What does this fold into?
Amino acid sequence: MRYAETGFNLEIDLTRGNIERVETDPRDTELYLGGLGTNAKLLWERVPPEVEPFSPENLLIFSAGLLCGTPATGCNRTIVSTISPQTQLLAFSMMGGFWAPELKYAGYDKVVLRGKSPELVYIWIHNDKVEIRDAAHLRGKGAIETAELIRRELKEPKAQVAAIGLAGENRVYFASIEQGRSSASRGGIGAVMGDKGVKAIVVRGTKDIHLARPAEYIELCTEVLNYIKHREQHPIPGVMPILAGLGSPQEMKVHDEKWHTENFMWGNSRLRRKDFWNDEIAKKWTETLESSRQRLISCYNCPMKCGATLSLPGFPTYMMKCFSKLTYTMAAMSDLEFGLKIAQRATEYGVDAYSTPQVMAFALELYEAGILTDQDMAGLPTDNEERFFWLLDRIVRREGIGDVLADGTYWAARQIGKGAEAFAHNTIKKHEQLPLKLSMLNPIYFLMYSTGEKINITQIEGQFPQAPFPTKAEREEFVKDWIQVPDEKFKHYLLEWEPRGEKSMPFFPTVQMCCEIVDWMEKMHYIDDALGMCAGLSSFPLKPPYHIHNYPKFISAGAGFDMDEEQLTQAVKRYRTLVRAFNIRRGMRRKDDKPPENHWKKRFPELEKELLDTYYTFKGWNREGIPTRECLQELGLDYVVAEFEQRGIPMESDVEPSETAPAKAAPQ
Ligand code: SF4
It folds into this structure.
């Protein structure tokens, strides 16, 4: 008997139309947990570095996390992994909603797609019956529209649908996979789905999931629910609204957007509007949100209601997902109503809400600078908001200049030339980042931005406050009930951390402390991505209900194998290192581990070098950022050692870096 997981993957060869139900090795679950962990193992074994993102040999894996479908609150994430067309590295984007639990109830932990379908198809998984069906009639349809059409066609209103829109069909490098209230957006995984000729994967399942020790598991779930209630009644004082509670309430519940609109950059991530938020704006934005919001909605088995259905005049009703409430608004320097309207169209097209607004604002900046000409932009409307709709339409269709922009700012700038590269200034590992430009180097964020392979800072940060509390009394209050810390020393780091003076950034927390803090934060995200837990209840917020002390109990009682904090830490280190090794095998090196050059105005090259050197050593990597032989062997990754040897990838700890990351300040 397999517990928590089903023990079976669906393997689909799209070229041949072959479908197999494959039993998986339970030992892999103990070593790599599930979700991202076992995805990484499959990709390591079956996708050598010579494989290009749009090659038939590239795999596209949809995985439910290990605990998805169990009664654990908020455990509903689908982890989609493939080679990203944008970064050329491993993409592992997550989506919430209902899809992953449904897949488990149908009897599978993963859907593994390989090859390419000669015609556009969708996959219909209904318990043991799995079909590849014609999707010619869905070509060009929106992602949400597609889901509705398929449900009607199958007469299955409860089927869960993960679909691409036009952007995925046309292999836009920042195309997403949409699932109603949620999406997997980073890394251009929708483009890989489109390249494989798959419009949608539709799931309906009615089987059970077994738990090893159900009574114990339910008790743990009850504790989590009680803690969620406690946190609802005790928001954290002195932090921005999104960090005061759990989940991502800034989406639809919170009207106060002072913090984001004044601290994030507008346009193509260049301009801060420091006094933007005033009473008039607050009133107008509140009215817009209240009048367009139909109802608040949650993902599967979660009380948090982070999302909402929205209805704006002249636009179909749709479900808003993470943070796109602001991204389009701020890129276009417009208002919330515009943002909510264009987000509807973007959701149907299926595009990433971080990259897309920046790409469009980038195009307009190039046009204003004379780098893109009237000829390039023939037909561009004069009205600002209409320009954004016009650009969006062209990008997803890959028409004219849209064909160039559809590759994202990094690749588009290189194709356009004439100085366009200077305008593509907000990428890490070739992928657009949050629109932030700050003053003083933050050593913790420096490490997260540089070494994070998830390519999204909100999927790396959390747990440790983003800034020091101003007074000692506030810090003492914060640490009082900080049960989530893996070690008491983290409380002392926070207590000592001052906004100014000797114990302030960039030299405090010290380099060693920064390494420990970043490692803790990253570890929690990687656990979530293997278990299928929403980061909004675990790795992202302060003082979450899931943490390093109760996760091992959930795994033991749910999946039925022994797990304590040390074993869990080792398992996470194993697949985190495997992700690193996978990207190293694809050519990633130290030179790629750097934030956008103008992310901070005040940079400290020596300190940054020390941070990176120390963090690499802390993680068991050499100075090139390559896991060392000792590290790999200690984690049982001997197969990685063998392949690194064969490929001549240096694992020695004293290897000299080929190029260090330049750390020069750029004009703001
Ligand atoms: S916290 Fe929000 S985003 Fe996370 S599972 Fe619950 S409703 Fe979904």
The two ends are 59 Å apart (CA to CA). Residues 213 and 557 are 5 Å apart (CA to CA).
